[in-house]
Amino acid sequence: MSITSATGELDAWRALPAAQQPEWDDPEEVRAVTAELAQAPPLVFAGECDQLKDRLADVVRGEAFVLQGGDCAETFTGSTADAVRNKLKTLLQMAVVLTYAGSVPVVKIGRMAGQFAKPRSKPVEVRGGVTLPAYRGDAVNGFDFTPESRRNDPRRLLQAYHCSAVTLNLCRAFTKGGYADLRQAHAWNQDFVASSPAGRRYEQLAWEIDRALAFMKACGADPEEFHGVEFYSSHEALLLEYERALTRIDSRSGLPYDVSAHMVWIGERTRALDGAHVEFASRIRNPIGVKLGPTVSADEALALIDRLNPDGEPGRLTFITRMGAGRIRDALPSLIEKVSQNAAPVAWICDPMHGNTFEAPSGHKTRRFDDVVDEVAGFFEVHRALGTHPGGIHIEFTGDDVTECVGGGHEIVEDDLHQRYETACDPRLNRGQSLDLAFMVAEMYRK
Ligand code: PEP
Ligand code: MN
């Protein structure tokens, strides 16, 4: 394929309906910003995306488990060393629990370093009789409820790129620079152990790991893998101008990669078969995820496979189901059955967050920890019954002790939600709830 024809194909989405795109006041400014992004250095390399595809191929074969998570919406002010370290620490702790207690290799993918744009169910937000455009993520407009802040500003796309670079740099440094060494498994827990049941349970497990490591060392084994972890970035490929501007032709293979993240996914609201998002994703070579909600039909899923993975490459396509605890046991079986009979294998992972959101009497958007656990349990039951592989979980969490989801070891109740409700979009599991979930998932995996 010549570079000119590849470029033409990369722009084919422009002729199709693109849902959830912000309207910008000044097209000239958008052109200037995307021209600048098109010259910017890549955030990830094509070879790294291929490596993640290989890891996801292991998941397809039933030999590994995905842990994908992070904020619903990252924010520019939240791109600090402390916040990134806390999220990463929580992700590493969850991964250790799953690897040790579940005895399975864990593919660690942050919903981090690029998750700055949000699809919205309503284009406007009404508060106290005032109507303003909805917040669409820091890449588009501001969270503050004022007309100035809610104005779409294309220059925010540049800031999203820079915050992604800073966040990814921290993640790379933390995961390769000694911090993620398994011998640090205790240190990640230090500030947490006394204050929480999940922390104490984790501490026990960290001691067991220490003993196992000491035993292995005494036997003369000290593998490289214990000294750092592979970490990958991902976000929803929502803003097509941004993703297109960050797409590069890989010099090794001549193929296009979206270098804004290792993996990108298409959301439940933008997965129309004849829409711009599916068209764009079909042209890039990164591993792709697609969210599937309870109304998806098996035919739609098969058509998505046809469009996004026509060559049946294992690891290329991951279906992220988000059915809701009440529906997963009914909606998932026929979907998996038809897909496994008729198409190349995909990785199946469970997002137990987005089908379980409700509004508390206080007006806070929240989720019940028990519903989250129940959806994951349903996911495991369905896969076990069909003999397919429950390939992982996709969650919204933070490393801080927020009060956004109810339940969990600390028993957050609806009246507590106001105490530390800090999310810019959907409610996240806090650190204790995330660790509790990891222990439960490890048990489900082992059964
Ligand atoms: C999300 O992941 O934050 C989201 C909006 O999910 P979905 O597309 O599944 O609704
Ligand atoms: Mn969300």
TrEMBL record:
Q: Which residues bind phosphoenolpyruvate?
A: R111, E268, R269, K291, R322
Alphabetized Pfam families for the sequence: DAHP_synth_2 (PF01474)
Q: Does the keyword Calcium apply?
A: no
Kindly state which keywords UniProt assigns to this record, in alphabetical order: Amino-acid biosynthesis, Aromatic amino acid biosynthesis, Cadmium, Cobalt, Manganese, Transferase
Q: What class of enzyme is it?
A: transferase
Instruction: Return the InterPro entries for the record.
Output: Aldolase_TIM (IPR013785), DAHP_synth_2 (IPR002480)
- The species this protein belongs to is Thermomonospora echinospora
* UniProt: Mn(2+) binding residues: C72, H354, E396, D426
Organismal lineage: Bacteria, Bacillati, Actinomycetota, Actinomycetes, Streptosporangiales
Quote the record's cofactor note: Binds 1 divalent cation per subunit. The enzyme is active with manganese, cobalt or cadmium ions.
The entry assigns this protein to a family as follows: Belongs to the class-II DAHP synthase family.
Pathway the protein acts in? Metabolic intermediate biosynthesis; chorismate biosynthesis; chorismate from D-erythrose 4-phosphate and phosphoenolpyruvate: step 1/7
Know the name of this protein? Answer: Phospho-2-dehydro-3-deoxyheptonate aldolase
**GO BP terms, alphabetized:** amino acid biosynthetic process; aromatic amino acid family biosynthetic process; chorismate biosynthetic process
Q: Which cofactor does it need?
A: Mn(2+); Co(2+); Cd(2+)
One Gene Ontology term of the molecular function aspect? 3-deoxy-7-phosphoheptulonate synthase activity
The catalytic activity of this protein is classed by the Enzyme Commission as 2.5.1.54
Q: Which reaction does it catalyse?
A: D-erythrose 4-phosphate + phosphoenolpyruvate + H2O = 7-phospho-2-dehydro-3-deoxy-D-arabino-heptonate + phosphate
